[in-house]
Structures are given as C-alpha cells and as structure tokens.
Amino acid sequence: MGYTVSSEEAESVYFISFHSELFFIDIFAASEFFLLATMSYDRYVAICKPLHYMTIMSIRVCRTMVICCWGIAFCIILPPFSLIATLEFCDSTAIDHFGCDAPPLLEISCSDTWLAARMVIACAGLIFIITLVCVVLSYISIMKTILKFPSAKQKKKAFSTCSSHMIVVSISYGSCIFIYLKTSGKEDVEINKSVALLIASISPMLNPFIYTLRNKQVKQAFIDLIKKIAFLSKK
Predict the structure, then answer these.
(1) CB neighbours of 18 closer than 8 A, spacing ≥ 6?
(2) Can you give the C-alpha Rg of the chain in angstroms?
(3) 169 by DSSP, 3-state: which?
C-alpha cells in the first residue's frame, strides 16, 4: 500500500533541505574567512619572525586556531540562521540561484524579512571587517619587513611566499563584498549568481594551481607525470 505525501509535508521537506544546505554553506563560508585571516598571520610569522616560526606556529597552536575559526564562525552565523529558520515560505519552493544562499531564500518568503535581511548583512559585515582587519594588519607588517630586506632576491622570494594567499584573499573578499555589502535589486540577481558561481566553483578549482603548483616538488612531480604520459602514449 503506497503512501501519498501531502503538499504540506512536501513543502516541509523542501525547506528542511533548504535550511540544512543554508547552514552548511554559511558555516563553511564564514570559517573560510577566518582561516584566511589565520593564514595571513602564518605568513606574518614566516616573514617577520622566521627564526621563531616553528615555536609560534606549533601543531598545537595550529589546531587551536582552526577550532577557534570554526567556533567563531558558528557563533556569528547562528543569529541570522535562527531568524531565517522561523520565516514562512508559502509562495514558491523554487530559488533563483545555484545554491541555497540567504538573500535568494529571503526573496521567496512571505514573512516580513526586514530584520532577517539586516541581520544577514550585519553578520556578513562583522565577519568581513574582523578578518579583513587581521589580514591588512598582517600584510602591513609584512610589507614593512620586506622593504627592509637588502637584496632584490630576498624581496622577490618573500613576495612569492605571500602571492598565493593574496590571490585567494582578493577573489574571496571581492566576490563576497559585492554580494552582501551592496544595495541589490532584482536586476542584480543574475550578476550575483555569476559571482556566487565564482566563489563556489571557480575559486576552489583554482586553489590547487594557486597553492600547490608553486611548490618546487609539486612542479617537478607534475612535469615527471607529463613526461611519463607522453612516453607511454608513444608506445
């Protein structure tokens, strides 16, 4: 005997799924910014205090910093997520977006979303400001130290050490500030979707090239793999 799902039950399943996806997207995104700030501190220690690097950035310290990043991210996203979870959705179950992000989810709610929308912007701004201040302060100290290096070779090596992180920071902050910290209208939906695609797909895809392919051992292993494939293809 079959079981027929009512429209209310189907809608409930839809929005439980939406809220679950929203929670994980938000906590992963928020923790990424705090991890980027932590990485900027790591670069600061590596360049400004190289002799003390192993002592300052020990395994225990790194683990504690990662746990703190996740904990702070959870505490910040919890208030807006709790407000969004109480909203009613009665008009549509279709989100005009690639994923379940807060702004498109608010657009299909039939409740008053003013407070939830302001809370989303406030928490996003708080995350951006806290982490961006850490990144900027770290790089100000890094730049001061680099400029004191006597040789151009040392300066180039130091800039190379930071360049990968700076590329990821630029993509992440620029994209998210564009989405969350600007006045958006319905005509901006398509642009926001494109920017969200950059954050969710293109940026993670570039990470292996940005980070690992700058490593000499990885470069050599990649070259050896290409040579091996070319050799096998000639047989």
Answers:
(1) 95, 100, 105
(2) 22
(3) helix
Q: How many CB atoms lie within 10 A of CB 198?
A: 16
Q: How far apart are CA 169 and CA 159, in angstroms?
A: 15
Report the length, in residues, of the chain: 235
Q: HSE, CB side, 13 Å, CA atoms: give it for residue 178.
A: 18
Residue 197: predicted pLDDT: 72
pLDDT in tens, 16-52: 677 788 888 889 888 989 999 998 999 899 898 888 9
**157-197 residue pLDDT tens:** 788 778 777 888 887 887 777 766 554 444 566 666 777 77
Residue type, 22: L
For the domain bounded by 7-234, which CATH number is listed? 1.20.1070.10
Q: What is the spatial distance between Cα 207 and Cα 211, in angstroms, rounded to a whole number? A: 6
Percent of the chain with pLDDT over 70: 74
The domain locations on the chain are: 7-234
Instruction: Kindly compute the dihedral angle of the four CA atoms of residues 58, 60, 64, 70, in this order, to the nearest 10 degrees.
Output: 90
**Cα(165)–Cα(39) distance, integer angstroms:** 8
DSSP string, 161-227: HHHHHHHHHHHHHHHHHHHHSS---GGGHHHHHHHHHIIIIIHHHHHHHHHGGGSHHHHHHHHHHHH
